[in-house]
Amino acid sequence: MRTQYIVALAAFVILAGNAANASAAALLADIENAIMCECDDKCGKVLINCNCSTSDKHRATIEKQIESGLAKEQIIQAYVDKYGEKALSAPTKKGFNLTAWIMPFAALIAGGIGIGKIIRTWTGKNRDISEGLPGRNEPALETRLGGYSKQLQSELDKLES
Amino acid sequence: MNNLGEFALMLAFATALYGVVAYVMAARGNRIDLYLSADKTPPIVWGCVTLASIALWKAFLTDDFSLEYVWAYSNRQQATFYKISSFWGGQKGSLLFWTLLLSSYMAAVYFQNRDKKTVLVPYAMSVMLSITLFFLFLLNFSTNPFERIPLPPEDGRGLNPLLQNYWMVIHPPTLYLGYVGFTVPFAFAMAALITKNLDDGWIRLTRKWTLISWFFLCMGNLFGAQWAYVELGWGGYWGWDPVENAAFMPLLVATAFLHSIMIQEKKDMMKVWNMSLVLLTFVMTIFGTFITRSGLIQSVHSFDEATLGYIFLGFLCVIVAACVTMILKRLPELRSKNELDSFLSRESSFLFNNLVLLGIGFATFWGTIFPILSEAARGVKITVGPPFYNQVNVPIGLALLALIGIGPIIAWRRASWANLKKSFARPTAAGLASAAALFPFVPLQDKSQALTYLAFVLCAFVTATILIEFFKGARARMELHGESFAAGLATLVWRNKRRYGGYIVHIGVVLIFAGIAGSSSYSVELQKRLKPGETLELRGYTFAYKKLSAVEASDVKTRIIAQLDVTRDGRHIWTALPEKEFYKGQNQPVSEVSLYSTWKEDLYVVLADFREDESITVKAHVNPMVSWLWYGQWVIAFGTVICMWPDRLERRRRLERFRQQTAAFAPAQE
Question: Fewest CB atoms within 10 Å of the CB: B205, B424, B532, B646?
């Protein structure tokens, strides 16, 4: 019974250790993704994507900070304090930086509304013309196309339906 | 030969200058003698630029270090293959290469249209000559590749080791062919604006050129991704770097243009929009060049001596001003009888497709320039990196993917609800079936994985819509002509090349979406220090470190190679040989990735570090579905070739449409 208890405890410790390692690795990856590699070569890469010798030093420092119990935000803030706001891999979501996040979607929504209005105008114009000139939009293909083109058109129409 | 090259560049500049002035004066004064004289200049400029390029290549191949450019980007030990590619390895040579391609395009357009007697061609040639003139000005007065060193050194510095990769030999020329190629539709569009020939004549004249440029730009982007993947060693293929963005933005705008010109061709509408798109595409190519060569935005791809910022900015401003002025001036002539039969039509879906493509383009542009805006507004330079683009562009990209599926099954002109229900039933069922089938296997632990799941479902939906289109078409031919399914399918594609070639391109895009989704969410990596005999475990694979060896590859290159045996369930899969390469005269060693690629996943091993006791730090990645991107690339290439293939039927159909339009307008004219 005692042996079983020890084995179970050992298994728990190993699993807990693995889980802790896994979460530490995930946390490291999260932090590496949030900051840029600040090196003399100005490699301009996100830390997680950088292989230069300075990036390994940054990683080692962050690992130590994780081990010492610092939270993700604290570690990132310490990095920003040292290298400035440009060390963040994406703009913060406050103040002027918020415009970076809002503008693409605002432009898309405005464009969508604009296109919706344009289509409504264009379809309305067509309705007006159709009402004024009945049969104006009817294709006059039958009378104009040769035998071959007629067959081709009918095939294409079948494909469309 | 160097003197000859330098003289050829000067002669090309003078000829181009004369050509531009003579073309303009001939047009303004209606002088045929001047026109005939000006019309000789494009092939002369091309000949001179080709001669200068040959001179520079000769200098590289003969190790002529009296040229500063050859000294900076080559050395005696460099392989011939890389001596040839060193031509575009630096700023000066790449500008000459750009000019060579531009003048070659110009010569090709010149010879293609020489006997056509089209009013647009002389104006288009003068626009192309003007742009060539700008690059020749830079080459002659700012970045002369034939600049001498008074006392030539014995050997050169050599090409950056990162650029000594076969993808870097293929990637820049392909990308440049795309960038430069868009000058042709731009020149014809400007010619159409100048001459007020604003029907779809200019589109017909440049359709092939637009497709060719689109093809090269698309391939260039994907070749660049492959280079980044195998050479940079971080396990990814796209970093949303400003220079990558610069190549991506014109591709998006050009894709929007390629879709919306179909509406102009079919319905003679959206002229202002199409004109604006083609001009914007060209502006984006110049904007990309400005980013690469200005040094204004920090990028891993920028040229070392990126000092041409203000010159390119000036050129960009002139181009934008010319485009805006011409469009505003011709607005009354460009106005068309914009009419749509229904909101529910393929025309509407194309408009939304344009919106989404430009939405991604705008988000990318905004992210690229935001550091400059931030610095101007707050005095603080910030970074806009991959997390921004992934958060903003992924949802818009998924909307685009959905539209790729929706567009082709909505009928042209007008779709009824009954028709829509019928068309959507099967693809939607396929999407739902794939959602149910994937659910037990796909992890859904976070937002990223949820989006990936959605991407897979949409991929299944889009693939189903396209395959059903092929199936329906082939069945129709079987019934009408008694052909076998395979023959029906082949004839269907052959007789409707643009339409079915386009669908094949869409299948390639779906493969790329699937590859991006799978590799972004399910990749794993592990870095570990190993001594000989130790192992690293990752997603069921065991990487056993065997030994470290050093190889003197050449007088300038030493390779340190680690050997790792990769097994799965005790079965040997592959021997990984990641290495570090040390180049004479270079501070940083270069990592050479060892890669084992299958359709399912890539095993990707990087030697991060090693020590004298033969212990190594190795970084192993398991990247699922990356190869899908490269399969997608070749499918796109195949589809584009089908689209570009000469089509007699298409010409006949166009003629028929023209007759219909003429007939439809005849009563009004009476």
Answer: B646
Other residues' Cβ atoms within 10 Å of the Cβ of residue B440: 6
Strands B616-624 and B601-610: antiparallel
Convert the pLDDT of each residue in B204-241 to its tens digit. 888 889 999 999 999 999 999 998 898 888 888 998 88
Q: Are B193 and B138 in contact (CB under 8 A)?
A: no
Contacts within 8 Å (CB) and 24+ apart, B386-390: B386/A33, B386/A46, B386/A49, B386/A89, B386/A90, B386/B239, B386/B240, B387/A33, B387/A34, B387/A46, B387/A89, B387/A90, B388/A89, B388/A90, B388/A91, B388/A100, B388/A101, B388/B240, B389/B240, B389/B363, B389/B364, B390/B240, B390/B520
Classify domain A2-90 by CATH architecture. Orthogonal Bundle (1.10)
Q: Do A49 and B300 touch (CB under 8 A)?
A: no
Question: How do strand B601-610 and strand B557-568 relate by DSSP bridges?
Answer: unpaired
Closest Cα of chain A to B468: distance in Å? Answer: 10
A94 interface with B at CB cutoff 8 Å:
no
Name residues whose C-beta falls within 8 Å of residue A143's C-beta, 6 or more positions apart in sequence: none
A159 contacts B359? CB cut-off 8 A: no
What are residue B542's DSSP bridge partners?
B537, B567
The strand pair at B535-538 and B524-530 is best described as unpaired
What residue type is B222 in one-letter code? L
What 8-state DSSP symbol labels residue B600?
S
Residue type, B535: T
Q: Count contacts between A and B (CB, < 8 Å).
A: 156
In this structure, the answer to whether residues B619 and B638 fall within a common structural domain is no
On the CB side of A15, how many CA atoms lie within 13 Å of its CA? 6
Tokens 């703009």 belong to A91
Residue B458 lies in a domain: yes
Distance of alpha carbon B624 from alpha carbon B525, whole angstroms = 11
Q: Which of A33, A97, A125 is closest, CB to CB, to B382?
A: A97
Token pair for B354: 């344009």
Is residue B125 within 8 Å of residue B39, measured between CB atoms?
yes
With contacts defined as CB-CB under 8 Å, which chain B residues touch A87?
Answer: 383
Cα separation, B3 vs B283, whole angstroms: 34
Instruction: Give me the interface pTM, i.e. the ipTM.
Output: 0.81
**Whether residue B119 is found in the same domain as residue B37:** yes
| Whether residue B643 sits in one domain with residue B623 | no
> In whole angstroms, what is the distance from residue B140 CA to residue B129 CA?
16
Is A100's CB within 8 Å of B384's CB?
yes
Q: Contact at 8 Å (CB) between B481 and B488?
A: yes
Burial class (CB in 10 A: 0-12, 13-18, 19+), B13: buried
Which of B229, B244, B355 is best to mutate for the A interface (most A CBs within 10 A)? B355
Q: Mean per-residue pLDDT for B655-663? A: 58
C-alpha–C-alpha distance, residues B585 and B50, integer Å: 33
Report yes or no: B455 and B405 within 8 Å, Cβ to Cβ.
no
Number of domains forming the structure of chain B: 3
How far apart, in whole angstroms, are the C-alpha atoms of residue B659 and residue B670?
Answer: 16
B31 is in which domain, residue-wise?
Answer: 1-159
In the stretch 589-648 of chain B, residues with CB closer than 8 A to chain A read 591, 606, 608-609, 619
- Strand-pairing partners, residue B559, are B551, B581
Mean pLDDT to the nearest integer, B110-119: 80
Residue B384, chain A, CB below 8 Å: the answer is yes
pLDDT in tens, B68-98: 899 988 888 888 888 888 898 888 898 999 9
pLDDT category of residue B305 using cuts at 50, 70 and 90: low
CB-nearest to B234 from A49, A149, A161 is A49
Q: Where are the domains of chain A?
A: 2-90, 99-160
C-beta atoms of A144 and B660 within 8 A: yes
